[in-house]
Amino acid sequence: MASSLDPATVSPTAPPPPSREAADRTMLIVRLSATAIIVAFLVVAHLTTPQFVTWDNFLSILRTAAPVGIAAVGLAFVTISGNYFSLAIEQTAAFGGVIFALCMVDAGLPLVVALAVGLAAAVVIGVLQGATVGLGANPIITTLGAGAGLYGLMAIISGSGTITVSTSLTSVLGGSLLGIPRVSYVFVAITAIAYVVLVKTRLGRSIVLVGANTATATASGIRSGGAVTGAFVLCSLAAATAGIFGVAMFGEAGTQQMRGLTFDVVAAVLVSGISLKGGDGSPLRAAFGAFFIALLINFAALHGYSYGVRLTMVGAAIVIGVTAHHLLRRIQD
Amino acid sequence: MAQTSGDSGLQMRGVSKRFGPIRALEDAHFEVRPGEVMALLGENGAGKSTLVKILSGIYQCDEGEITLDGEPLDPSTPRKAEQAGIAVVQQHFSLVNPMTVAENIFLGHPRSGHFWSPRRLGRRAAPFLELVGLADLDPACAVGTLSVAERQLIELARLLAREARILILDEPTAALSDAECERVKAVVRSLSDRDHSIVYVTHRLDEVFELADRVTVFRNGRSQEPVEVSDLDVDSLVERIIGRPLEEMYPPRGSSFGEEVFAVEGLDTLGLRAPVGFTVRAGEIVGLAGQLGSGITPVMEALGGARPITAGTLRLGGEEVAVHSPRSALKAGIAYCSSDRQRDGVFLTRPAIENVSAPALEAVSPGGWVSRRREVELGEHVYDTFGVQPRRLTLKVGKLSGGNQQKVALGKWLSARPRVLLAEAPTVGVDVGARAEIYTQLRKLADDGLAIVLASWDMQEVLGMADRVLTFYKGAVVSSLQAHEADPAAVLRDITHPEEART
User: Fold this and answer.
1) I need a labelling partner for A180 at 20 to 30 A (CA). Which of A49, B162, B253, B387 fits?
2) Which of B21, B326, B344 sits opposite A19 (nearest CB)?
């Protein structure tokens, strides 16, 4: 049976909708809640952590947030299309990085070409997964399988080792501009592009409508398979971009390069309040979610917490975030 | 029926409920006596649902007093309401499909205990099944395997098992065919004979005259004095509901038809026994009448591309068109509006404007970029046609009333500029006022040259609207009647007993 949040339970004789004013007010509360949580966290972090509010630490947070954020913005499309998550994020990122590195190091191709090849590989990965899911396969299982496959493929072509990429080759991608890591600019730009794609383009609208109600979308003549494929391609592209910047930042590529990224990215989308039912949400939210996850990771790192504690913190943030959004949405409806 | 002293039964006096600045209920009075069937009527948003939710403990009233047999009653939670003997049968069932009939009846029952055997549970369920006319049903079969009507009756049995004295039935027949409705109505009658009070919420006025003793009409959150049904006729009741004199519910029929627009030849698909053929002229409304399972839905789905066509040809304006998906149907100029708007008619979580533009997404996004201007133009055009206030364009469809939701579900197809509109049960779950408007608009669209196929289980609707009626029985066409030949008796005979009709 449908939960109380399911729009399908709104009966045709529902009470009159709350006034615009009241609706706007609750919307405002919902919007402010995310900001309030971040501000509260910053205050606590500042009071308990001496090095927290420093320029260096801010840069460190930005560096952490960027790859997670870039991938999360892409994953948002999959979630909004009503297909929950891709569990192949870190493999796609690592794969993009490995292809990029092989092009640069082994083939000696120019940076732009290597970038293009890496992203083209991501498109192929996205099309294969998206088409499969579009045909009706379960997205979680499909991407889990795809992740394993990609991992294997990478192990074969890179010989399980790491590929060292001289940072001089990738200095355009790595490093800083005006004191801020270049990857952060890319994060902001990709978020803006993703927003425009979702709100302004036919593909974006199709993704939203298919996520809101696949049956209605199909009946309205929208190609749902195409929209889902589009969502997965955008997700793969974003993940591979994160992976390629990872290579530039760390100077090496390999199967293990992006370990843990999937969890952080999924966590970012979960805490962001994008509805898992699909058909609602925005890449901006995903970007904020990633920033919040980066704050948590940074906080844990400054306190020297172990990986276990860090995971527990992110896990708790997911549970609290999802519950809070669930309750807020109930008020809103 | 039972007439007892003044304060026996349920009384609500001066009940008010506000949602922010919206007054959902204002100084409402309502009563139901033991053994009485009280029809609760009103347009969508008139306050019926709010009243029901207050009685069942989902909402609390801001002001007012509720008494049961003269004792104050405080249904502040669903549990308290249930303990007081008030129970609601929802439009959307709360049964658990994989569980058995008996398990469903006692699910969450205060005295169901922690251990039970299927056989003992079955024995306990039997008397309640008998009460609702399902004595022959095996209590051990899974609810999911039953028909909608049977599930509706089990829902009733479930409430009887909780010793509910006040039963609130919220549109219990909305999803049922005529024959199935009869079963539900028979049970309602027998329950009122056993001194249960029945509050019957419905949009189907024929049921009111068949079942109810009295009627309470709500309008704009206010209640009107209860009236004996014997003092009313359909027109006076409709006027009470909409609060103004009623022009005809159905607009005048079309007088002149254009050329043949849509021709269906030898159409066959899963769910039909014999191929179907008919033609529709510009400006004509062809009605398909039949019960659930009669084949009208398969025909509509096949024509709309939602069900594979196994044989036959479709011609639009003389040219053969291939329909194999909703998309190809739309491209050819055929729009299919199904009867289930929540399933595949609207996007509840999206604004109305996005719903309206969805069938024309390619037209509003030249070069892949969605043009807000074109979207708004389309939305306003559709809203003008169907008489919805444009400011509602930005509201999520799920927040609109049932009538407005239906107008969106139907009107959005105009965006695709179809030449044929297939409308299936276009006024399901819609109040009287919105129904009349939808009928008027459909006729106006036909007059503007659209060819319309209207399929419905509601015989009155087909008779009231169609210029030609095709009757269906068990997957085959029984007869094709012109409007003037299609009297209710003939159509009813054809859609229920075709053998007699033939002789």
Assistant:
1) A49
2) B21
Which residue of A3, A9, A13, A196 is the best one to mutate when testing the B interface, meaning the one whose CB has the most B CBs within 10 A? A13
Closest by CA position to B410, among listed B104, B429, A104, A266: B429
For residues B287-298, give the mean pLDDT: 89
Pair (B24, B44) in one structural domain: yes
* Percent of chain A residues past pLDDT 70, beyond the cut: 87
Question: Is the confidence at residue A2, as pLDDT, over 60?
Answer: no
Residue A1 lies in a domain: no
Q: Is residue B141 part of a domain?
A: yes
DSSP structural state of residue B44: T
Q: Which of B338, B350, B359 sits opposite A212 (nearest CB)?
A: B350
The reported pLDDT for the residue numbered A214 is: 92
Q: Which residue has the higher pLDDT, B359 or A304?
A: B359
Of B338, B369, B403, nearest to A219 by CB-CB distance is B338
Note whether B349 contacts A279, CB cutoff 8 Å: yes
Contact A16 B22 (CB under 8 A): yes
Chain A residue with minimum CA distance to B324: A221
Strands B468-473 and B476-482: antiparallel
Q: Which of B242, B276, B291 is the last residue of a domain?
A: B242
Beta strands per DSSP E along chain A: 163-164, 176-177, 180-181, 252-253
Both structure tokens of A277: 């039912």
**Residue pair B347/B355 in contact by the 8 Å Cβ criterion:** yes
**A201–B24 C-beta distance less than 8 A:** no
Q: Domain range holding B257? A: 247-333+418-503
Q: A215 phi and psi, to 5 degrees?
A: -65, -45
Give the pLDDT band of residue B310 (cuts 50, 70, 90).
very high
Burial of B239 (0-12, 13-18, 19+ CB in 10 A): middle
pTM flag (> 0.90): no
Q: Where does the pLDDT of residue A191 fall: very low under 50, low under 70, confident under 90, or very high at 90 and above?
A: very high
CA dist., res. B290 & res. B492, Å (int) = 9
Minimum distance, in Å, between the CA of residue A277 and any CA atom of chain B: 10
CA–CA distance, B173 with B305 (Å, rounded to integer): 29
Q: Are B281 and B258 in contact (CB under 8 A)?
A: yes
Q: Which pLDDT belongs to residue B184?
A: 82
B344 belongs to a structural domain: no
Q: How many CA atoms lie within 13 A of B489 on its CB side?
A: 1
What confidence tens digit (pLDDT) does each residue in B208-236 have?
A: 888 899 999 988 788 888 989 888 887 78
Q: Which residues of A touch B340 (CB under 8 A)?
A: none
Residue pair B388/B365 in contact (Cβ under 8 Å)? The answer is: no
Q: How far apart are the C-alpha atoms of B427 and B436, rounded to whole Å?
A: 9
Please count the other Cβ atoms lying within 10 Å of the Cβ belonging to residue B110.
11
With CB atoms and an 8 Å threshold, state whether A203 touches B170: no
- Nearest residue on chain A to B331, alpha-carbon basis: A221
Do B398 and B456 reside in the same domain of the chain? no
| Helix-, strand-, coil-residue percentages of chain A, each rounded to 5 | 70, 5, 25
Residues B433/B43, Cβ–Cβ less than 8 Å:
yes
Token reading at B38? 């009280």
Query: How many domains in chain A?
Result: 1
Residue A78: domain span: 51-332
Contact B74, B155 (CB under 8 A): no
Unique residue bearing structure tokens 């009685």? B55
Boundary of a domain, candidates B242, B269, B291: B242
Grade residue A31 by pLDDT with cuts at 50, 70 and 90: low
- Angle at CA B211, nearest 5°, toward B209 and B216? 70
The neighbouring-strand residues paired with B334 are B420
Kindly state whether residue B339 falls inside one of the protein's structural domains. no
Do B366 and B443 belong to one domain?
no
Picking from B345, A281, B276, A285, the residue whose alpha carbon sits closest to that of residue A293 is: A285
